[in-house]
Amino acid sequence: MVFFLVGMGEKCDKLDFRQTIICPCCGRYGSLEVYMEYTYFSMFFIPIANWRKRYFVKTTCCGSICEIDSELGKAIEKGTQRELDLGSLNFQKRQGGTLRCSGCGFVTSEDFVFCPKCGRKF
């Protein structure tokens, strides 16, 4: 009789990346951290293969999250990308029922799609 211990699961790993910022969501000092989420197959509790990789950026100050492109995520994973452009990230900016514009800092409790002060998309 032969036994095989196989399994599948999902995992989230924090990548070796940290960038100090003034948060576009809450306006406080914080850092950006990058995480990789993936599905894996294991045999005898040893991961054999992984797929469906997704990469996320998270702020340390308010916990806002943004998914990033897989090519950029792979570059961060390999260590070739050392800095992210805050203007290209689309964070979920809701904090305590308010919105903060990442362009001009305007704060509102209204449910706007675009900032009424500078016109940038929330």
Helix/strand layout:
Blueprint: E1 6-22, E2 29-43, E3 46-59, E4 65-68, H1 70-78, E5 99-100, E6 107-108
Antiparallel strand pairs: 1-2, 2-3, 3-4, 5-6
Keyword list:
about 120 residues, mainly beta, 2 domains, 4-stranded antiparallel β-sheet, two-stranded antiparallel ribbon, 6 strands, elongated
Q: Any idea what the shape is?
A: elongated
Figure out the total of helices.
Answer: 1
Number of strands: 6
Radius of gyration of CA atoms, rounded to a whole number: 19 Å
Strand order of the largest sheet: 1-2-3-4
**Beta-strand percentage range:** 35-45%
Helix content: under 10%
From the N-terminal CA to the C-terminal CA, the straight-line distance is 61 Å
Task: Describe the protein in words.
This protein is mostly beta strands and 122 residues long. It folds into two domains: 6-89, no CATH class; 92-122, no CATH class. 7% of the residues lie in helices and 44% in strands. It has one helix and six strands, in the order E-E-E-E-H-E-E. A four-stranded antiparallel sheet has the order 1-2-3-4, covered by helices on one side. The radius of gyration is 19 Å and the shape is elongated. The model has no long low-confidence stretch (mean pLDDT 83).
